[in-house]
Amino acid sequence: MYVSGLEKLDFSYQAEIISFSKSHCGKYLGVLFRNALQIRSLTQINLPLIDSYLRDDASLRAGGFNHWIQWINSNNLVIGTQTGHLLFLYLDQNGKIIETNAIILGKIITAHSSVFGALVLATSGPNLHFISPQGDILSSLSFPLSVPVIIRQIDISDPLAVLTFSDGAAAQITLKQSDIIEQKPVSISFLPVPEISSASIGINKSCIALQTFKGSLIRISKSQEITYICDDCSLYQTTRDFLYFISLAANGTISIWSSKTGQLSKTQLDFPFLAEATNPSLITSEIDINGLRFFCATSSEAYVITFSVIDNLSPSLLFHTPTHVIIPTTNVTIAVPDDMNEIGYPLHSVAYSADQKKTAIAGRRCFAIYSENTAKWHLVKDEVNLCRALWYHHPFFLSVVFDYETPVYKLLLLSAEDFSVIDAGLLEGIFIGFDNNETHFLVATSHSISIFEITKAPKIILVKRYVSEHSFDQVLLYHNNENVAILTTDKELIELPSNNILIEGVSSATMCREIDMFLVVAHGQQFALYNQELIRIGTPSVLVDGITAYILPKEYKFKEFSLIQGEFLPQVMFHFLDQPEIVEKLLRSFLRTRNISLAVSRALDLAFDANKYDSFNIIFENLGEAKYTLLIIALFNVSPQYQNRIKALLPPVDQLLVKFPNIADQIKGVYSQ
User: Fold this and answer.
1) pTM over 0.85
2) What kind of architecture, by CATH, is found in domain 311-424?
3) Which of these, 97, 421, 469, 602, has the minimum number of CB atoms within 10 Å of its CB?
4) Cβ of 450: how many Cβ atoms within 10 Å?
5) Does residue 133 have a cis peptide bond before it, meaning omega lies within 30 degrees of 0?
């Protein structure tokens, strides 16, 4: 993920901005002003206004100005004042305000949230009150006397909640619906980090984000492992899956931290308000449900920061924003069709077919396919299915979608010509992930892990199915199309069907399928796992294509982003030089891969530096004619002091000139030195 855009928002209303809040479904953004509320659409470009509510003077005199906003569900929200005046607003299916209901709680409200379809309010004591969408108090809970009397913030991910208190303490509690109804005492567990100003918990409950009064942003796992992310945080948000932590500093620096790689990337944004003499502060932020747009505001100005992201289910060099497909390594940018911005905003899935030169994308209510040969889009509307995953499997595209009407997950086989559905099947359980190779693919749900292939018919057929006893969030398919690796929520990489633990402490994993080599990130470092050996290969990358590692820069200038290309295969080859049969297997697996010759050149440099080049004599002898191509390219790319050693492995120069007539002049130039 990197920053690709910064725009000032125009809400066409001159009043002090208080807060942003998105609806649970992700369709609406509530913009709270000192005396008004706007409902804006998150599913259309430029956040068009859906409806607004303006409080009259009598209401303001009685209850004071707006202080907070809270969604109870996708069609019901509340705005409140510090003095306990609440206004419930009810929306229709299009986001229009159809009814309001004002009540007075009669207590000073210190924090707010929602759970089980009810509004949750904290008052001094501390006490938690659960209030229905109609404004009725359903239940109240109190805490032990040892707990600080004021809760200043609540975040709930059913059934867990994290609380921050006025003295800087933070704690976790479990909220069971039955306990709330019966008003049972709350069991509380304090977190081992002091001076906390705010906290949030992920939907998978695997970790908690904490911000301190001094501006530190911290991640604490469920095993109490603490990670310090940055120390200049003014506002922060996390993506819905807690994969990315996004921090915005008072000076406009935005920091993006990946929980998969442990890497932090920073860029400086030039907000107009930074040049103002009054030096206004950022006071509120929100992120959309897709993690593509970060909204922030001072009391008088609002902005949206747009991100370009990679598909974490199937990493590639295709990044995308809500409206564009971007390939950072080539600076190619493709705008989505205008119709998609109207009916399917935002873009959230991308796949690419190299052999057909086609880019497939999915938005909210549509699919589209772009042909490089015609430079045109073909758009397909879909009012029923929400795309959860999209990938290419020669010569088709495949997609996992959620059917709103049923509701179930479905696997679709799609034509690469017009995106028509060729075959479809139901998936049991909740979709988790997929993996893909040349002949087979797998789809994982909460129910099972299924390996499929496509027949000549063409039809999707089930080949093998596994049921895992472990909770997991990532799956990888071996080259033999039978074995599977899962990355569990406990950070264990496990092979199925044996259930053998391959490595522990893993935050992310990918695979070089040619040789069933795993690329794992553990404790902020990247390793290759092969033949039960672990080889450190440097900075964690967003993608390894088999030979090259593509790495996010630690700092980059806004609109001047580029991926760093690092080594992968040369380091692995060098590690196994004492086992030439493995290096030969590595070379054979990648012989048809782009840049293999440059990787061999770098591996030779490493071998010559360590005086371990004898192994290459054995390796090259078994490669047949391929060795000459590898060696002649190495001749031009190894360090100059090692060129004579390469010449010793090559046939006489007159034979080389016959074998490689197209580069005869270059060969003569090297041999004349």
Assistant:
1) yes
2) 7 Propeller (2.130)
3) 469
4) 22
5) no
